[in-house]
Design brief:
5-stranded mixed sheet; globular; 5-stranded antiparallel sheet; 10 strands; mainly beta; membrane
Length: 96
């Protein structure tokens, strides 16, 4: 995929913290922990909103899983987009 191109069959994902947009890009899937357990979001899934628990959020990008830790927050999904709002986020490799 060339810079700036949007992947076909992917979700537009935005992860926001109070001070910045932590991540904005395309992902094949997003997995979060909710009160009801793990929830995987795929393209064209029924929209929903939910509180998410502190823990790991998984993004599948170009067939590879990327993990980030969050302080919990909220998720809102539409058929082709996912927005996560959290107080804190860091990529798994950034953790000490």
């Amino acid at each position: 995929m060339k810079g700036g191109e949007i992947m076909r069959d992917s979700l537009h994902v935005k992860i926001m913290t109070p001070d910045r947009i932590f991540f904005e890009g395309e992902s094949e899937s997003v997995t979060v922990k909710t009160g009801g357990g793990d929830r995987q979001i795929l393209l064209n899934r029924r929209p929903f909103s939910s509180k998410i628990n502190p823990g790991i959020v998984k993004l599948k990008i170009d067939g590879k899983e990327k993990k980030l830790a969050t302080a919990g927050g909220f998720i809102n999904t539409e058929y082709k987009s996912v927005t996560i709002v959290t107080h804190y986020a860091t990529w798994e490799t950034e953790q000490a």
